[in-house]
Structures are given as structure tokens and as C-alpha cells.
Amino acid sequence: MSSASARSCSKVAQLDSSKGSAYAMLDDALLELGDYGPAERAYKQMERLSRGTDDNVESRRARFALLRGDNAGAARHFSNALTFEANIFEPSREATAWYQWQFGETAFATGDYQTAQTQYQDVLLRLGTDRHEGRNAFLPRRHDCPCCR
């Protein structure tokens, strides 16, 4: 992530200042650059515009908790993000898998290897991969391959 990306996200946030998603992108860019103060301000603006808590807010709370060394808080926020995502009308498999993976990484970092393994396995089952270059299992099968027939 470059500072040019952060500037672009900042312009988007200024042009579309009524939506939290622009500030979410800005927050992500600034966090990746290590600009934590401005990232936290962008996060607060996103949180205010979101009018409550959702999976995006919770996942960013988790990232800030990780930066502060609060692994228990990060795990709680990733778990909350998973709950929010699971309870929307059409949950995204990719978003759910990302939250689970991050939750697993947090568990692994704290020595909770059983929870980490469970989260990692759930991600693999959710997205699944086949034997062909890690393609997702929900992609069409290859008809020229004997194992896909």
C-alpha cells in the first residue's frame, strides 16, 4: 500500500463523505502504512456513519486491538464480525472465511491451537479447494482431468 493509495482513498472519502465505506478504505490504507493516528480518525468517522456496529466495524476494532496487543479483544471482535456476517440475509463466503481466518490467526498467536485449527479447517471447508492450482471448489470442474470426471 502506498501513500498515493492513501491519498486516493482520502479523496474518495471527501467526495463521498456520507458513507462509511469510503472511510473504511481510508482506514485500511492508513493502517497498512502505519499511520495509526489518522487511521483511527478514519475509523471513528466510519463507525459514526455506519450508525451502529456491523461486521466491518467489528473487524476494524479487531485490527486495532491486535495493534495494541489485546489478543483477547481482537478474538472477541473477530467473533462478533463472524456473528454479524452470519446473520445477514446473504452472507459472503469470502468475508466469512476472512473473519474466520483472522480469528484463527489470533487464536494461534495466543497459543489456543485447537481454536485456530478449527477456524482454519472451517475456512477450507467453506471455500474448499480442488487439486488444480488451489482453485476454489465452486469453480467449474475441468473436463480434461481424470480426477474431475
Ordered list of secondary-structure elements with their pairings:
Blueprint: H1 3-15, H2 20-33, H3 36-50, H4 55-67, H5 71-86, H6 93-109, H7 113-127
CATH architecture call of the largest domain:
Alpha Horseshoe
Give the topology string: H per helix, E per strand.
HHHHHHH
Radius of gyration: 18 Å
CATH-defined fold name of the largest domain: Serine Threonine Protein Phosphatase 5, Tetratricopeptide repeat
CATH superfamily of the largest domain: Tetratricopeptide repeat domain
How many helix segments? 7
- Please give the share of residues in helix: 55-70%
Reported for the largest beta sheet, the result is: none
**Strand pairing plus helix content: what structural class?**
mainly alpha
* Dominant shape: globular
Low-confidence stretches: 130-141
Distance N terminus to C terminus?
Answer: 42 Å
